[in-house]
């Protein structure tokens, strides 16, 4: 009769380790353990997502003296940076949250590195034009939005009225009138009086 050998301590330990590994990989209900779930999800995510624009920059129209705000929305920015430039001459206005131009009327703000706003206060006619929101990806990505600065009519009217007043000050307008002299009732002699002066400028 053959005697069965009792399992050694090494064999028992190996069996215990094997059971523990099986429990780690699969729970009793068949689902993955939390550690393996996190590992599986991390493997499914892309290593480096490319940044993309969300929507487009809306063009705006605003009168002089007011402010204009251009909004640029970006997702998956990651390690990349957002810059604002003037489209006409490629002048860099701001990079990320830092303004690099020497124009104190310009500022830039962002919300969670997703929504970027270029703000121009006290608009002037020289601010009219298009502005570029740029991402320094490879290849470079950009969007353009334009500002139409409207000159208020009251400003133009003031300009013209001031010019007219200055002209009349230096060149008085003479208005012809008629005067009856008492010595000759039947004789009418014309005389012009300056509009802005009490004395006659021309006597005929």
Automatic annotation (TrEMBL):
SMART domains: IG. It comes from Anopheles arabiensis (Mosquito). Pfam families: I-set. One of its GO terms (biological process) is synapse organization. GO terms for cellular component: neuron projection membrane. It comes from the Eukaryota. SUPFAM superfamilies: Immunoglobulin. This is Uncharacterized protein.
């Amino acid at each position: 009769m053959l005697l069965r050998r009792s399992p050694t301590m090494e064999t028992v330990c190996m069996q215990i380790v094997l059971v523990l590994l099986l429990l780690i990989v699969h729970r009793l209900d068949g689902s993955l353990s939390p550690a393996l779930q996190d590992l599986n999800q991390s493997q499914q995510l892309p290593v480096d997502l490319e940044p993309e624009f969300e929507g487009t920059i809306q063009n705006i129209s605003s009168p002089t003296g007011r402010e204009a705000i251009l909004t640029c929305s970006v997702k998956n920015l990651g390690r990349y940076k957002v810059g604002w430039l003037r489209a006409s001459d490629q002048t860099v206005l701001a990079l990320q949250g830092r303004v690099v131009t020497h124009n104190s009327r310009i500022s830039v703000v962002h919300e969670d590195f997703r929504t970027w706003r270029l703000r121009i206060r006290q608009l002037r006619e020289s601010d009219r034009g298009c502005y570029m929101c740029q991402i320094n990806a490879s290849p470079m990505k950009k969007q353009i939005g334009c500002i139409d600065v409207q000159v208020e009519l009251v400003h133009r009217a003031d300009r013209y009225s001031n010019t007219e007043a200055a002209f009349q000050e230096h060149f008085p307008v003479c208005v012809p009138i008629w005067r009856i002299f008492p010595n000759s009732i039947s004789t009418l002699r014309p005389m012009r009086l300056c509009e802005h002066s009490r004395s006659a400028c021309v006597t005929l």
